Amino acid sequence: MIIGSNQPYLFPYIGYWQLINMSETYVISDSMQYIKKGYINRNNILVDGKRHMFTLEVLGAHSDKLINEIEVGNNSKKFLKSIFHTYKKAPYFHEIYPLIEKILLNDEKNLAKFVGYSIEKIASFLEMDTKFIYLSDLQEETSLRGQERTIDICKRVNADHYVNAIGGQELYDKNSFNKSGITLNFLSSETIEYKQFNNEFVPNLSIIDIMMFNSKEEIKGMLKKFALI
Questions:
Q1: DSSP assignment letter at 214
Q2: Which of 26, 54, 132, 149 fits 144 for a cystine, CB–CB 3.0-4.6 Å?
């Protein structure tokens, strides 16, 4: 069984979804340390033809807290308004905006569950059949960290193949995984471009941008544009 895992990121870029799409089981790492100025509660959209970072307000956010110990704040409606004005003339706005609205206006206050909800809803929209598990439900408090913790996660779900984003090359060693009977690969996304109004293309934006400018079938094609290393 192939599994992937990562922290819950809000409306992440296409590489995150490629990893989810190829995983039979995907572990949402909600019991990991919250990283300030990371992508757990923020990402980039297109505003006036330029990259613009949005941030979902969070309450009680400290670097010594876990992601699932933090609450969502009160700026979801403001963010939704920004999306409306930015993308209202995008070709797939009328199909995608109700999905984003449903996600941002849901009543969940726990940050990990709020972002996890967004991940599952978008995965369902893109017709992925990946099973989602929260790390906190799978693995109770443990002294294991880093690579050892990930190997333990694989064993708990009987996975024999673990795939991580390309940045994981700095964290994980293939020989260590092999000794535990687990194949380790890293996903490297190919260059993906598409038309954004009549602007010069701005790469690596949120999945919101991709969905606003591309059909579901076009996005499914993008999900296959990667190499395993």
A1: S
A2: 149
